[in-house]
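Late entry, written up from scratch paper. The run itself happened at the end of the previous shift, but nothing got recorded in the book at the time, so transcribing now.
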Amino acid sequence: MNEYVIEMLNITKEFPGIRANDDITLRLRRGEIHALLGENGAGKSTLMSVLFGLYQPEKGVIKKDGEVVRIKDPNDANALNIGMVHQHFKLVEVFTVLENIILGVEPQKMGFLEKKEARKKVVELSERYGLKIDPDAVIENISVGMQQRVEILKMLYRDNDILIFDEPTAVLTPQEIDELMNIMRSFAAEGKSILFITHKLNEIMAVADRCTVLRKGKCIGTVDVKDTDKVKLSRMMVGRDVEFVVSKSDATPGETVLEIDHLTVPSKLHKNNAVRDVSFHVRAGEIVCLAGIEGNGQTEFVYALTGLEKPSSGEIMLKGQPILVVGRKHSKQSAANLGKVKSIHMPIRQRNKLGMSHIPEDRQKFGLVLDYTLEENLVLQRYWEPAFQKRGFIKKPNVRQYAEKLIAQYDIRSGQGPVTPVRSMSGGNQQKAIVAREIDKNPELLVAVQPTRGLDVGAIEYIHHQLVAARDNGKAVLLVSLELDEVMNVSDRILVMYEGEVVGEFDPKLTTVEELGLYMAGAKRQAAERTVH
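Output as recorded:
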């Protein structure tokens, strides 16, 4: 039997203006977990898309069990027992979880769809691997983390034994990541072979047997994980040493910029409220982190704050001005501003003009217009300003100049520069484009939801520096993160949300990851008066 279950030999793949894969050779052993590491835009997802049949290479061959194979499309890949969990999910949002999992391999009897056996198999797989799901839930109504589980179950349902995970932990909580690592180990123990794209060096050190590093489309080398460390891997990846600890001075908070007063937001998934009577404030010159396991109300809270959803009651003040008052007796401050108006729901553009910036959790759904160019996306929230338009006509040279500035400053990699369609860019570079646009607006309040999701260590280091710089420039930063290292390193104050409530407030210097974990899991709770401001 051949030592390698998959061999990708001398693969070259080109797109307009860029060679995404340049003569790359990658070999996957049977029963191993093989990590693929590289900066955003290094060519990792492209290489795996070639293996899965989404792209055809200009040069090179693919072998399975020593035999040359031609993979023209994902159906060919599935026929070879190759499955892939994509970084950006391939799900039909109006279908249920079960319908998405069986899509394309629907069980039939006499021409009629038979879901009973499929449901049984899906439930058994979910229980076996700890991937709890509701088969009848509609995709558009479930969290990003749940959608990730659906993608994994799609692959398991098809009995694939070569498993490609493209940034599988980018949308998972720390607890879910640990579970996934255990699942991957069990897959390998069963004889399945795993290709694992990630930017998280801790995960590589914890679970991978070997690691191949790509940089700017070229293969830098393959190493045994047991013979290396995070510093060496990061140096291979970015070509320089990287700081893993955020260096920052103590915060010197000023006036209150954001004030949340008894905010309640209904849930779309159940009868209970997603956010329950939450109150806190964020001051100029500090970074406040809203931490918690996904699905505990952070998403709905941010939607209400940024204008994407309407809460049932509560009040939000930005720079002393009410941007939302609904369903309750107003404070004296809001009443003075409102006059005879009983409620207010300020439009999103007005919130932006007042000084709010938002790095959204779902970059493709709420952060970008995928079929627009990069330069168009970079001015999405500013194109009406005099710098970019005159009498309703866009000043295209100004837009181009501004885009080129941000591309250089934030190292946004794209094959055709400012005119690159955003849809064709890597997920990490899409994220960098959003971060660049939102931070460069010089907001009074920066709402950063998972700002480093899907970014490499070099980009994470840069974004963290930008968040701290915004704080040091007297801006208020509300960080929403599932990454406990990020929570502990970047925050000045930490608020933990559990089941829609703020259950604890912490100074990162005086707490531990273990203590935060207890509050995030609902095992502990502070007195209410300590968390309401």
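Confidence is low (pLDDT under 50) at residues 529-533.
(Scratch paper discarded after transcription.)
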